[in-house]
Amino acid sequence: MRQIVVFTDLDGTLMDHDTYEFQDARTALEVLGRQSIPVIICSSKTRAEIEACRRRMGLKFPFIVENGGAIFIPRDTLNLKGEDLVTRGAYHVLELGAPYSVLRSTWQAVKHREKLRMRGFSEMTIKEISVRTGLPIEEARLAAMREYSEPFIFFDTADRFQRLGRLIQERGLHITKGGRFYHLVGASDKGKAVQILKKLYTQTYPRTKLWAVGLGDSANDVPMLKQVDMPIVIRKKSGQWEPVQGIGPVVQSAKPGPRGWAEEVLRIL
């Protein structure tokens, strides 16, 4: 038997980049639900944001937060034998990234020592986050509840950005690029989290052959796409696709955002 598992980014992929709506993908989500196919969100969003999205979408599966910073697994859903877990409310959590306190202190130290022109979420008010993301105030408040990443905007020169990258790497951290922001994260990415979840699904259903689909639109989705059997790059509203290197053939959606997401998912089914 073969079990399809869908790993998906949110912004610009399952959700519209500007409106954050997913109505164009609702029918495809319902079809996946009727066929009991897990849809696992793998996003740069916070746990609080993803919980709100899951409620709206009617999803009850594990999810990956803040570019692979942690995996949240509803209790009594997967065989977690051998994993180093913490328990938070209704979830077992595999923490893969650096704590936000470490990221924030490193961010401040490097920024002020090098006098870099950049601005992170920890320096923004909720109103500023709302303006920069286009989110309503209450949703911007959820976006500010970081646990494993520091999104930021960089205003300085290209050579200064390269220096920032070197300094961050020296501290055991790294920078990835999303649809709107750069993200300071620990030694984690979406690919590592997807790899772990695939192992857990195989461990839970040993008689089933797992077949993973991945959908994303940005550079921070590339590690995820490298870990799936069917990597799908969703077209951006600009008409372009994120360059993907280091893996075999990828599918490029003809349409952007949730329309492209739905078309490709239904085509696979």
Keyphrases for this structure?
269 residues; alpha/beta; five-stranded parallel sheet; 35% helix; Rossmann fold; globular; Threonyl-tRNA Synthetase, Chain A, domain 2; single chain; four-stranded antiparallel sheet
Describe the structure.
The chain has 269 residues and is an alpha/beta fold. The chain folds into 2 domains: 176 residues, HAD superfamily/HAD-like (Rossmann fold, 3-Layer(aba) Sandwich); 86 residues, 2-Layer Sandwich (Threonyl-tRNA Synthetase, Chain A, domain 2). 35% of the residues lie in helices and 23% in strands. The protein contains 9 helices and 13 strands. Helix 8 links the parallel strand 11 and strand 12. Helix 1 runs parallel beside helix 9 and helix 4 crosses helix 5. The longest helix is centred in the middle third of the chain and has 15 residues. The chain is globular and about 55 Å long.
Produce the secondary structure layout.
Blueprint: E1 2-8, H1 26-34, E2 39-41, H2 47-57, E3 63-65, E4 70-74, E5 86-88, E6 91-95, H3 100-114, E7 118-120, H4 126-133, H5 137-143, E8 149-154, H6 158-170, E9 174-177, E10 182-185, H7 190-204, E11 209-216, H8 222-225, E12 230-235, E13 251-256, H9 257-268
Helix pairs in contact: 1-9, 4-5
Named CATH topology of the largest domain: Rossmann fold
Mean pLDDT: 94
Q: Whole-Å distance between the termini?
A: 15 Å
Second-tier CATH architecture of the largest domain: 3-Layer(aba) Sandwich
